[in-house]
Every structure is written in structure tokens, then in C-alpha cells.
Amino acid sequence: MADASFSLLTGNSIETRLVRAGGVIFREGEQANELFVIKSGYVRIQVGNKTMADLAPDTIFGEMALIDNEPRSATATALTDVELVPVSEKQFLFLVSQTPHFALKVMRTLAQRLRTMNKGVY
Amino acid sequence: MADASFSLLTGNSIETRLVRAGGVIFREGEQANELFVIKSGYVRIQVGNKTMADLAPDTIFGEMALIDNEPRSATATALTDVELVPVSEKQFLFLVSQTPHFALKVMRTLAQRLRTMNKGVY
């Protein structure tokens, strides 16, 4: 599978945000101004009561609302204690414009989620 | 909603491909080396027997297999006579690297499809 790791964004010198297990990172319907890279721990993504994905370190989440300027499409909670690297909308647009590999990785993340969901329709 | 039109890629001087109503553009499981912009007509995207989307002019499809190098995740058929602009993998990577707006538009297309699918789980 194509590389979709964002480990380059979670270096030691970057400011992180800690969320304890069970804590809500964002809720469906909220306005958004940042996405997150998981530095350590696991994050659950839910729409209503349905679990859409459990995400591991070096993956991103929360990118959809930045991409299309709509409210959060899902709720994200910490499954374990998690360490997150927040990426602002401004930083996101800079990364997309300056580093094509970043843009492709974001696309791969979205494409993989669509494939996972497509498989659910059989 | 954020602009996700690809009309800039369907100018008059560009070579197009015509598919008659009912014709198959690609099938689920096939290897992929191009995506398409719809210049005129409507295209249906199906996974198995389920219709995932009916797409209008100035939208793209077939981008997922180029992004993650996996086989086609869905079947695309012409609902009406359609005129398509094929974009090769090489052209796609060039557009992503040289034009950040193109990358963002592809991301918006993927994000909108994920939102549409998320809504189906309630």
C-alpha cells in the first residue's frame, strides 16, 4: 500500500497536545480550524453511534473540515492517552502548496477511508 | 461549499474521449493508469450493485486508484452520452506538484464523497 505515514510531522521539537483516555478531541458539527497528527496513542472516529475507524500513531485526522470548510463530520475521542500534533489551517495550506508529497499523503488517507467504507456496502 | 470544479481542465483544445450512454468506462478491480474529468454528460459510479454517485460535468472520477496505486474501487458507466478528458498518472502527479489548487480540489472531491457516505450510516 502507498505510504500514508505522517511521522515527519511528529518530530521531537514540535509542540504537542495531550488528551487523556476517554477525552473528546472534537465533536461532530463543531467548527474546525486545525487537523491533528497522532504522535502516540489511539483515536476513535465516530459518526453518531457508529465507529468509523480506530487510528494509530503517524496517521492524521480532522483534515476533512479544513479541506472543505464544513463543520466536523465526525466525533474524535482518545481511546488511550494520546499525544497529538495540531496543524493549523494556515500550516496545512502551506504544506499542501510547498510539499506535493504531503498533499499526496492526505489524498491517500482520504482514498483509503473511502475504500474501507465502499467495502461496507456489500 | 468549497469550489471543486475542474472546468479548467476541459478547455476546447484538449483531446477528449466519447462514451455512448450505457457504455462502461472502467470496471471495479481493473488496473488503473488515468483519471477522468467529465466535460459533458453524466457518469454513474457503482460498487457491486449499489449506486454510490451520479456525477455531473466538471467533476473528476477515477482518481482513487491513481492516488493509492490499488485497482479500481468501483465501476463507472455513462448514464448519458459523455465526453471525458483523460488525465494520465504522470499528468496527475505534475498537476499536484505544480498547482496546489488542483491538489486541494482533489481533496475536496474526496472529502465530499466521504461526507456523503458518512451520512448513509445513520
From TrEMBL, chains A, B:
Residues forming coiled coils: none
Top-level taxon of origin: Bacteria
Pfam hit, one: cNMP_binding
Assigned GO CC terms: cytosol
GO molecular function list: DNA-binding transcription factor activity
Domain Cyclic nucleotide-binding: residue ranges: 12-113
PANTHER family noted in UniProt: CRP FAMILY TRANSCRIPTIONAL REGULATORY PROTEIN, HTH-TYPE TRANSCRIPTIONAL REGULATOR ARCR
UniProt protein name: Cyclic nucleotide-binding protein
Source organism of the structure: Bradyrhizobium macuxiense
